[in-house]
Amino acid sequence: MNHTREALQDRSIKAVDSNDLANNRYSFGNTRSFQSKRSRFLSQKKVGGPTPLYQAMKYSYEEILDPYNPVDTIYVISDGEIGNLDERAKIYMLNSKLRIRINTICIQGRSDFLNGIATDNIGSFYLVN
User: Fold this and answer.
1) What tens digit of pLDDT does each residue of 36-75 get?
2) Which of 107, 49, 106 is nearest to 81 (CA)?
3) Helix, strand, or coil (residue 61)
4) Closest Cα partner for 97 from 63, 65, 53, 51?
5) Domain 2-128 belongs to what topology?
């Protein structure tokens, strides 16, 4: 988890929990208070089971991205267990217009899918064991 915190250090972050899109949107800034909130958010997330990644990304593009406050990077934190392998192509198409950098962080799971997402979207891939 330390690698995850290091990768996200000193960033303003908007986060979505893919398991409950309607009720779980979070914003984190660069202050100590936000850093503490971000740490709590990350420590409460459970690893395991298929992740509806495309739905979370689509929701983010529709509900969170703001043309007046542009986002330059998206971080995906997952165990890499994706329910539908077609999601990689769908995410690429979703991001084809804006070309936002997508960095992926794989926590104790299958890394090939998340590594592909990062590669397709000018991002970096991090593996946390």
Assistant:
1) 766 776 676 665 667 778 888 888 888 777 777 777 888 8
2) 49
3) helix
4) 65
5) Rossmann fold (3.40.50)
